[in-house]
Design goal:
The complex is a heterodimer of chains A (305) and B (272). Chain A is built from eleven helices and 14 strands. Chain A has helices at 50-57, 77-81, 98-109, 114-123, 139-151, 169-184, 196-202, 220-224, 237-245, 271-280, 295-303, and strands at 12-21, 24-34, 39-43, 65-70, 73-74, 83-86, 157-161, 188-193, 205-210, 213-219, 227-234, 251-254, 259-265, 285-291. In chain A, the strands form three sheets. In chain A, strands 6-7-8-3-9-10 form a six-stranded mixed β-sheet, sandwiched between helices. Chain A has a four-stranded antiparallel β-sheet with strand order 2-1-4-5, with helices on one face. Chain A has a four-stranded antiparallel β-sheet with strand order 12-13-11-14, with helices on one face. In chain A, helix 3 crosses helix 4 (114-123). Chain B has one domain (2-7, 62-269). Chain B is 77% helix and 0% strand. Classes of the chains: A alpha/beta (305), B mainly alpha (272).
Chain lengths: 305, 272
């Protein structure tokens, strides 16, 4: 499955990107578009080509075939200067302090001012350690410094590769909140992650890769809603399940949650009709919702894991 | 261009290891030349016949103008000291993966290589400045036979710069290819101090083959001829080596262009 939707004025367009490492084909003709203002998650198991894809759009790797456009133009250094990017691991000069490393980022990218450096360090809670050498930082602190570097000058587009790598639960929650704030203020964020929960919570759009192939791309709610999952409850779950089986064969009792789940083909579950049918059959519902399939389940389904 | 130089300055200005090696480099050039000066003084102050014959034969190689040639020759032995700085500057980028971060942050690959070329160029200029100051100081304090013609051989400043830039560029290429500081330095030193001189001499003496003069270090080694007193051993050969300098200027410039063209091409081509 390789779905592609055309978006007006996409921030990023990928067109048939192919990349090989010797005999191994890391990307097999990947094409998709990232709409402006979206939080675009790139998902896939290890080795699916997520980092390779981000490396190509940031000119760290050269694609064997295909092309990509940033804001409708071929990638260039001038465009990269406007994008805050964290790729794979935080890469800084080990002998320099946090503040001196960010001065280099500022000098190369031209984003922000020297005064802005203090602000971004405060944002990621590294201000107190601004004069410490990078080599003395923990993994989480290094990751936060890399995120601070991306935020310099408040770029409208950010690229994050596994942004919560090495962070503790509080750090993860903070970065998630930061991404939501950035999304709400109109930033476009392209984010590779294998943490599905993270993507489900913050992403508006996603692309799922498996061994270099694009399996699906689109809005997260569209990707998730493959089947209609209806969750119901009543005082007698067995009676409810029996009634529902008259409508649909796929009925499962979840005794832990005290609910019954009925799965209908996409777009066919009509909650008012189900409610009415159950009532006519003598079962009074006390809970009825149409649920999205969890991204995790959808991901495993698509990647056959 | 200014922002590239500013960025490179930000990288090194708070780098203690750089300043240590730079300090050692700065001490090496006066140190080496003073060492040879003291050896010369020690030999020539002997009242013995041998000492006096040597003095007559050598003249004063540290007096100007001959000092330009003598000290350029001795100073050129220690190219591997500034080569440490050059290799450190490039291999650090690979060790810390900051070469890719610089690109991600908005430099083009050409910007990155231009920055590195400027580093090597500036280091060669600083070493040349140091050489000039040392020659002026030692030369002017050891003047003999008045000041006549003391600026005659000042073109050795240019030749010294060309040799330093050329050989540091080769050190840079080795660092860029091998990416590991220790291995790059070991191979550069082993090649320039052991392999190439042996190969050049074996080819010359055993096979009567002059191809060695086109070897990467030898091309620019021949820019700086031996001091005059050593040339007296075989005056015809010495004159030949002086006459060949102008050709080696051209060869060295060609090699420099090829070296940097290769570095830019490689950096542009390979994945980071």
């Amino acid at each position: 499955m390789n779905e592609k939707t055309t978006i007006h004025n996409p921030v990023l367009s990928l067109n048939n990107i192919i990349k090989s490492y010797g005999p191994v084909q890391a990307l097999k003709g990947v094409s998709f578009e990232v709409p402006e203002g979206s939080v675009f998650g790139i998902l896939g198991p290890n080795g699916s080509g997520k980092t390779t894809l981000l490396s190509i759009i940031l000119d760290v790797l050269k694609a064997n075939k295909g092309n990509f456009l940033w804001f409708g133009h071929p990638g260039s250094s001038e465009q990269r200067q406007k994008i805050g990017s964290l790729l794979e691991t935080p890469n800084f000069y080990h002998y320099l302090s946090a503040i001196n490393n960010l001065k280099i980022t500022q000098s190369i990218s031209g984003r922000g001012t020297i005064e802005d450096i203090d602000e971004v360090l405060k944002k990621v809670r590294l201000y107190e350690r601004r004069k410490s050498r990078f080599s003395s930082f923990s993994l989480g602190m290094k990751q936060r410094l890399a995120i601070a570097a991306t935020l310099l000058g408040d770029p409208k587009v950010l690229v994050f590769d596994e942004p919560t790598n090495g962070l503790d639960p509080v750090g993860i929650a903070e970065i998630r909140q930061l991404i939501i704030e950035l999304r709400n203020s109109g930033h476009t964020i392209i984010m590779a992650s294998h943490l599905l929960d993270e993507v489900e919570k913050v992403c508006t759009h996603a692309a799922i890769l498996r061994t270099g192939e694009l399996l699906i791309t689109g809005r997260v709610d569209e990707i998730l809603v493959d089947d209609d999952v209806v969750e119901l409850s009543a005082s007698d779950l067995d009676a409810l399940a029996a009634v529902l089986k008259q409508l649909n064969e796929h009925v499962v009792i979840d005794s832990q949650l005290n609910t019954v789940q009925a799965i209908f083909p996409k777009g066919t579950a009509k909650l008012d009709e189900i409610n009415s049918f159950c009532f006519k059959q003598g079962v009074v519902l006390n809970h009825l919702i149409l649920k999205k399939k969890r991204l995790e389940a959808r991901f495993f389904e698509l990647t056959n894991n | 261009m200014t922002h590239i130089i500013k960025t490179e300055w930000l990288k090194i200005k708070n780098y203690p290891a750089f300043w240590w090696v730079f300090g050692i480099t700065a001490l090496t050039y006066p140190g080496v030349n003073y060492l040879f000066l003291y050896v010369y003084r020690d030999i020539t102050k002997q009242k013995s016949t041998a000492g006096q014959v040597l003095k007559a034969l050598m003249g004063n190689p540290f007096s100007l103008p001959e000092g330009w040639r003598t000290m350029a020759f001795f100073s050129s032995f220690f190219i591997y000291i500034p080569a440490i700085v050059v290799i450190m500057l490039i291999t650090n980028e690979y060790t810390y993966r900051t070469n890719r971060q610089n690109i991600i942050d908005g430099w083009s690959r050409k910007d990155f290589m231009t920055a590195k070329m400027i580093d090597v160029l500036l280091l060669a200029a600083i070493v040349t400045l140091l050489f000039t100051v040392v020659v002026l100081f030692i030369g002017l304090t050891n003047m003999e036979n008045g000041a006549a013609g003391k600026w005659n051989l000042t073109y050795y400043i240019g030749l010294f710069f060309l040799q330093t830039f050329s050989q540091l560029s080769i050190a840079f290429t080795v660092g860029m290819l091998l990416r590991k500081a220790f291995i790059a330095l070991a191979i550069f030193t082993f090649y320039s101090v052991i392999v190439e001189p042996i190969a050049v001499n074996v080819l010359h003496y055993k096979y009567n083959n002059e191809i060695g003069k086109f070897f990467p270090m030898e091309i620019s080694d021949r820019l700086l001829t031996k001091p005059l007193f050593l040339g007296r051993i075989d005056e015809a050969a010495y004159q030949q080596s002086i006459d060949a300098v102008k050709y080696h200027v051209v060869y060295s410039i060609c090699l420099l262009i090829l070296t940097w063209a290769f570095c830019f091409w490689l950096n542009n081509r390979r994945d980071l």
